[in-house]
Amino acid sequence: MKPLTGRVALVTGASGGLGQPIAAALAQAGAAVAIHYGHHVDGARQALAAIEAQGGQGMVVSANIQHETAVRSMVDQVVARYQRLDILVNNAGITRDGLLIQMAQDAWDEVINTNLRGAFYCAKYALRAMLRQKSGTVINVSSISGLLGNAGQANYAAAKAGLIGLTLAIAQEYAARGITANAVVPGIIDTPMSRAVTSRVVDRKLEAILLRRPGTPDEVAQAIVLLAQNPYINGTVLRVDGGIRF
Where are the transmembrane segments (predicted)? Predict the structure, then answer.
């Protein structure tokens, strides 16, 4: 039997980037996966088709995670379909980079509202389902920017640092009810978002990685599967960064 057989996962931002391989890895481990998308329905459908082609099961759900009522409806859809929710992966995230003194208010708000407020709403309603079951796990996808900061990403770094604090609070609040919470902190990962950065910047950052290479989305996904299947890992901030030493 696969380690996550019988469990149900909801992965936000699963229509591309890190989200697709995270959803695929959870499905390969046996979970039924709800694939969330905000705008890119084709990517979400492709992710589901790939899972089903491998004999897995899942569903596609849509919500603007900046809005509480939309998130509540999304979680209700998943629970109505599967009668449970065991794993929440808060992966959805955006960037709106710029130097702090030049950053527009809407650039700050959009990143905070998607990357942090959205995770809060998703955790709030997923936890209600998990509390009824007396089991479950919340896995928040943070970033090395949330630990070390990054010039030109004050909004993104603040949101990702906030995710770590949110993780640790959930771990303390709900451990007694059989619910765990952990954060994964990817470093420089080979995704479309990282490829948009100039090669000069990437080369400089790669020099700070002990392994001297970017990570792959699958390497991040496997870390999430590890956390999803181990009930004794709680309140952990797991760096998947190749050994970054700035």
Answer: none
Torsion angles phi and psi, residue 165, rounded to 5: -60, -40
What is the distance between the alpha carbons of residues 57 and 180, in angstroms, rounded to a whole number?
Answer: 24
As a whole number of Å, the CA-based R_g of the chain is 17
Domain around 227: 8-240
β strands within 92-193, DSSP E: 136-141, 179-186
What pLDDT is stored for residue 192 in this prediction? Answer: 73
Give the CATH number, domain containing residue 83. Answer: 3.40.50.720
Pairing state of beta strands 32-37 and 58-62?
A: parallel
How many whole angstroms separate alpha carbon 157 and alpha carbon 163? 10
In Å, how far are 37, 55, 78 from 171, measured between CA atoms?
A: 26, 33, 23
Q: Which residues in 145-216 belong to E strands, given as ranges? A: 179-186
- Active-site residue, from 82, 121, 156, 174: 156
Confidence of residue 200 (pLDDT cuts 50, 70, 90): low
Q: Please state the separation of Cα 181 from the chain's center in Å.
A: 12
Domain count along the chain = 1
Residue 3, in any domain of the structure = no
- Active site annotation includes 174: no
Output the six-digit token pair for 233. 């890992």
Q: Does the reported pTM lie above 0.90?
A: yes
CA distance 188 to 217: 10
